[in-house]
Write the structure tokens for this entry.
Amino acid sequence: MIRAGFAWLLVLPLVVALARHVQLVMDPPAGLLEAIARDDDQTRNYTEPAFRGPIVDRRGRPLAISSPGIQLFVDLVARREKHEYEMGIPARRARFPEGLSPVTESDLQLMDFALEVAHLFPELEMSPAEIEATIYEADQKNRAGGRNTRYCKLGDVLPQSPALVDRQKVAKGSHNNRILLAGLHWDEVEIRQTVAPQSLRSLIGKTVPAPQGLTGLYGIEAECNAQLTGTMGRRQDVVDTRGRRLSGAAAQPAIDGRTVTMTLDLDLQQYATTQLQEAVASCHAAGGRLMVLDVATGGLLSMVDVLAPPREGDWPDAPTDAAREEGGLVGRPRCISDVFEPGSTFKPIVWAIAVEEGVVQPSELIDAVPPGKEWLTSYGRRIRDVSGRGNLKWDQVLRYSKNACMAHVADRMSTTILRDRVLAFGFGERTHLELSAEARGLVPKPRNWNHFTQTSVSFGQNISVTAVQLLQGISILASGGELRPIHLLHPGPNFHPAHIPVISAATAQASIEAMVPLVEDTKHLRIEGVRAFGKSGTAQLPRSAKPEQGIKHGMYEDRYICSFVMGAPAEDPKVLVLCTIDDPDRYALERENRRHTGSYTAGPVAKRLVEAALGRLGVPQEVVNASNDVAFDLNGVN
């Protein structure tokens, strides 16, 4: 009994001490935690990642999203030490944990580490030999270059999933695994996925790793980087001497980035892409551009840019893009970056300017231009026309696209007035669309703007525009004479577009009415159930100078940039479409008994997109059923 009592006297303090230890570990008093927190060696600082905000279309459908992932990497120093241990003397090797030491010398060539990593993480899609080779090459580069890089990435970032998380736990869950997989680590990272269709990838842009997460490299990802980027969270933990967490609080929780909503309609974008690709192929063209605008807001509903694969034969000066040598959809955004002479699609701008300046009335007879395909200006320049009609009224000039009438009326204005008015329509300046790749276009300077320039500009020559500039210029006519800046980012439900007056509402409506007969009188452009308006253009393709061949800069006589702008309804325009077919093969079309001009190459595409866009906007409803192919395609992707 005395011995037993004495034993309890020895054991009781140990039990009390153990209980106190458990209490301190499980529920340490506040005073102790404060004392530990004052010791820098007993605190750990952590960051909590924040994801980028999503990019969505006008209906909330994702175009770019973020998801969690892990990046596996290897501590080269830890692996080298383990390898040296395995290759050590038999006595040391014998102390290696049972079942983990290599059995034969050949096993040392392909270590258990690589076998286990390949087994645990098949998503890497790397064989054990590839894993070992990656580690070996990284280690050799370090030694050869005298670098001190300790870590080596293994494969790409892996999407995080419940199964992957479970396998991470297995990798670190036992003593044997911690030894076998010594040097294997992972970081939690953000995976940015562009889920938008190919036609939007250039607009959405790309991200690259940065110290604070991902950052936009170009496109909307770059232009809206501040809005998309989240705020990383920070936490400080108090730990014990073995690094175990005792307490901690999120001093600053992570805040994900904000959502960026674009004005684009994903369904309409896909439909527009299909239509433009088919038209480019059908016309044996080098490429094409297509834009759809919501006139009321200035928001772009679709923007597509297609380049065809290289054509057989010699096609100098055809549109190209170094980023897509074999053609396709992903490259520089040519709708905003590439300029061209608009040709006759620019005539409605000058037509409206002349009316606004009071130098002509819509009903005025232009009898100074008699019938014929050639006409001399007041300074002796010969103007050629496709149409031989003459003695037209001013409101008939756009219908027959009469160059001579445009030149005659433009001559009634001073060069300063016409140039200033052209600038007021937004030409020669960026539209400030939310993309940095936008070009300014080219409007001749005052010192270079002479009578020859005045005549040329009146029918869309000697001036260079981007597709988005031309669309915005025509949209001023469609929006009652007001400039409503074109944009790609949706400002929100309470957005009210800017209304910048450029010309009077009466002049703008007169211009729209002057473009109605071209559509109404052309069977393949007419839309049942709605009055639409439009204007075609068939501008010559510029020819580069080749001094070594004696070729001067000029224009090709048989190669063109064909365009068509179209909108509806004429009484209150809601939708405006611009399509260009770049460098169609005129002679291939003629062999097929087809025409190469803008009305026949770009016009049908513009018509189908006007029908589709009206249906998407619900204005008017009967137009949705006006074309069976439109209704089928759009309903099929809803």
User: Anything to note?
Assistant: The first strand starts at residue 43 and ends at 48. Residues 302 and 610 are 11 Å apart (CA to CA). The mean pLDDT is 85. The chain has 24 helices and 24 strands.
